[in-house]
Every structure is written in C-alpha cells, then in structure tokens.
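## retry 2 of 3
previous attempt timed out at serialization; input unchanged, resubmitting
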Amino acid sequence: MSKRTVAIIGAGTMGAGIAQVCAQSGWDTRLFDAFPEGLQAGMKRIDAFWDKGIERGKTTPEQKIEWAGNLSACSDMAEAVAGVDLVIEAVPEILELKQQIFSQLDQLAPADAVLGTNTSGLKISDIAEATKRPEMVIGMHFFNPVPIMKLLELIQHDQIADSTIEIAREVGAEMGKSCILVNDVPGFATSRLGVVLGNEAIRMLADGVASATDIDTAMRLGYKHPMGPLELSDLVGLDVRRDILNNLADAFNDESYRPHALLNQLVEAGELGKKTGMGIYDWSSGEKVEREL
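## retry succeeded, writing output
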C-alpha cells in the first residue's frame, strides 16, 4: 500500500499524538472529535509540537509544511472515515462509549477497513462485539507521548483474523514503532504492570516512605527506568490510571488492584496530572515541581 488513508477518532492527548505520527508517516490523516473545542485543541497541540521541533533544530519548516498537508480536521465522523483503510479510536476509557463508537464505525467505515482501539486495558472482545466484523478489530495501545515512545502494544482476541494482525504490524513498522503482540487479558502486559507499580508508589508517598522526587529517582537510577512511576502517572493521567486499576479489580475480582485513597482524592479534586497543571507534582509553571500532599 503506497499511501494509507487513516481516521483517528478522538483528538485528546493520545488521539492528537497518533494523528501526528500518521501524518508524519506520509498518510492521508483525518482527525475527528465530536467536540469542536477538542478538535481545535488537538490540532493546536500537533502544531505546537512541530514548532517546538523547529525551535530545537529537530524539524525543518519544510517538513512541517509537508506533514501539515497530510492532516485534516473533521467534525463529521462519516466524512472522516469515508474511504479509509484504517481507523484508530482514541476516546476515554469508558467501555460503553467505545462500543457506541465502534457500532457507528461499523456502519460508516468501508467494509475492509481495520478498526483499531487505543484502549489501555479494556477487553478488545467486548469492543469488537459492537461490530459485525470482529475479525477486523484489534487493540492498538500507543504510549504517551506518541511521537516519541517507540512501543506499540497489539492485542489479539479470539475472533481476530491473522490478516488484521499483519496489517497492524505493518502499520506499526511504518510508524517507526516496535510492536509486541499480547492476548486479550485485562490490563494486557504494559498497563497491568505499570499501574500496579504506580499505585504502590502512590501508597509509599502517602505512607511517608520518601518524597515523590526520591521515589522516582530510586526507580530511574536503581532500575534504569527512563521516568519514575509517579511522574509517569502524572504524564499518563491520574484518571486514566484510576480507571485501569478499577477495571483490573473488577475483572480479576481482586481488591488489591483498587486505586489508593490518595489517587482517588486527587482525581476527585480534578488534579489529574500534567494535563490539568496539577497532580502528584505541580506542573502549573510548565515544569515539574514537588508539592505537599
């Protein structure tokens, strides 16, 4: 396939990042969001990323012009998915919402289009059941920030076609991602490990074991993690982390997965991490600053 035509559903942090990488891969990329302000914010986020790359000498103005020419904003889902060969959904981690969207995509997208979901932990089979083409549905779990993170976690379920997996692998390779393939088990490989580590780090912080900075430094220098679990939780979004933990607790009937009270407290206060300017750390200045919790 010389040039893919791709629709990204949801223009939040993840959706905008996925759309950016698709455009940079040379594909005809349509970014859709049901909320005009969300769509505008997503397009601005991509533009700002490219501008920052130019400032740092990593991107040329000519590249930005070329990539921007591959990207269009769509406020109508039918228009966004018309004639595409791949759709990647990136809306919030709410099963009912994803099922509703996939039911719509099943009606609107071409019959041979692969439908990917960027869920962090929901069962792919539950999402695929909302369509009449479950064999064409696959989990495509990207990582934040999408333009930088090299991993793409592909999730297969019982009804998936081998050809769908192969197409997803090709897409990942063309994006410059390294793909892993996991089975449709709650939390997959990455989220299940990541949220448990993050939840325990929050418990340690609440218990006064050490400061947030020192806990993160311990994992960066002691275990060679590129980022500490608390900073990473702020980057991913504390609400996302909380929802995954609750999904795991329900799926495995294991209360040990439940989010720590401090995590719930921060989410209920609307302090969701870097995206809101406040989380485990204070990000209001644009930089990470230790805060009292």
